[in-house]
Amino acid sequence: MLQRFIDEMMSSLFVIDDEPPVVVKWLFDVLDEEAEREGIVHPEILHAWKANCLPLRMWANLIRRPELIFDLDKSPAVESSLTVISQSLVEACLSTPHAISKNSPSHKLVFAKDIARWQCSVSEYFESVRSRPPVSDQDLGVFLQQLSRSQAAQFDAIAALKELYVYINKYRDAVVHALDATPACQQLFLSSRLSNIAASLETPIC
Fold first, then answer.
1. pLDDT score at 98
2. Measured between alpha carbons, how far is 149 from 141 in angstroms, rounded to an integer?
3. Considering the domain boundaries, does residue 146 fall inside one?
4. Is residue 110 situated within a structural domain?
5. pLDDT of residue 1
6. What is the pLDDT, as a whole number, of residue 140?
7. Are residues 109 and 14 in the same domain?
8. Where are any strands of DSSP class E within the chain?
9. What is the pLDDT of residue 151?
């Protein structure tokens, strides 16, 4: 009874006919460039990077824990079902062939015929995004500004900035080192700008 809805969900996550979201295209291109720069020739490594950045970090978590964005309570039965679906998405994002045995976990057995098909969908989606025209940093900036303006009344920007700063301050040495070592960040003087922000908050960062 639920199979149709699960198939529709998987299809909606990995649409190859439409233009991918600007942020996804930009991020995947960054990963492609990093793989080339590091001389990574094994496609399964790049596949794992992309899978961990989008479907696993975001979609798998939201499927398993919809209360992150919705005000709802889950019954134990619903929670178990969502966990099975989430784990099936994790399996679909693997680049290795899907194999099952009598000792396989329940989600592998329930969706044994579907996971291999979903794996193909994930690979085709990654390839589709890679083949699209690149997104420049300027295009990304314009998109994020438009998104920010459209959502201005729905979020507390000061609270969000505070949480970001708490995170950055926690890993300040690594963040500053990364900014100083990245040419694009050097051109934008991000390390100096971050230090100025820290100074204005009376919390020296470097």
1. 66
2. 12
3. no
4. yes
5. 62
6. 92
7. yes
8. none
9. 79
- DSSP secondary structure string for all residues of 74-127: --HHHHHHHHHHHHHHHHHT-SSPP---TTS-HHHHHTHHHHHHHHHHHHHHHH
Question: Are 17 and 79 in the same domain?
Answer: yes
What whole-number distance in Å separates Cα of residue 50 and Cα of residue 66?
A: 22
Judgement on whether residues 74 and 17 belong to the same structural domain of the protein = yes
What is this structure's pTM?
Answer: 0.71
Of the residues 68, 97, 131, which one is the last residue of a structural domain? 131
How far apart, in whole angstroms, are the C-alpha atoms of residue 33 and residue 94? Answer: 21
Q: Are residues 31 and 66 in the same domain?
A: yes
- Radius of gyration, alpha carbons of the chain: 20
Q: Are 179 and 191 in contact (CB under 8 A)?
A: yes
Instruction: Kindly state the tokens that stand for 68.
Output: 């992150």
- Give the containing element (helix H, strand E) for 199: helix 190-200
63: nearest Cα among 35, 32, 84 = 84
Q: Looking at the structure, do residues 122 and 165 belong to the same domain, yes or no?
A: no
- Asked, for residue 13, whether it belongs to a domain, the answer is yes
Contact of 132 with 158, CB cutoff 8 Å: no
Per-run averaged pLDDT (10 residues), the chain, 206 residues? 82 84 93 92 92 91 89 86 88 80 71 85 93 91 89 78 86 89 89 85 57
**DSSP letter assigned to residue 16:** S
In a domain, 111, yes or no: yes
8 plus 107 within the same structural domain = yes
Q: State the residue range of the domain holding 169.
A: 156-206
